[in-house]
Design goal:
Layout: E1 2-5, H1 6-10, E2 13-14, H2 17-33, E3 38-41, E4 47-48, H3 50-64, E5 72-75, H4 79-98
Parallel strand pairs: 1-3, 2-4, 3-5
Helix pairs in contact: 2-3, 3-4
């Protein structure tokens, strides 16, 4: 299992979509393609933006389907971060169910 510490890459306020994209392309997607479970550790992260979470996981869900969420776990998320993740996941699942393509960030 691969653990990715978001704080080490994005700081206490995770907002930079370029950092999220790099994590997705360099760590999340390759792990999913190898069948390796991933833990996204938000320890030390006080807040994040919806666009950061979208850039972090949306393309992985789009490429690998909603089942990819079974391979991604979220750790040490405060209530704010949990809510933002929930919003993005629900948005992506609705898009998959409706057959619409989501733009890659």
């Amino acid at each position: 299992m691969r653990e990715i510490r978001i704080f080490e890459k994005a700081g206490a306020f995770a907002e930079n979509k370029d950092i999220a994209r790099d994590i997705r392309l360099q760590e999340i997607i390759p792990s999913l393609e190898q069948g390796e479970p991933i833990t996204l550790d938000f320890g030390g992260v006080d807040s994040t933006t919806q666009s950061f979470i979208h850039a972090l996981i949306s393309d992985a869900i789009r490429r690998h389907g909603a089942d990819s969420l079974d391979e991604i776990s979220f750790k040490s998320c405060n209530k704010n971060i949990q809510q933002i993740i929930k919003i993005v996941v629900e948005y992506m699942q609705e898009g998959i169910e409706n057959g619409s393509e989501q733009a890659e960030v």
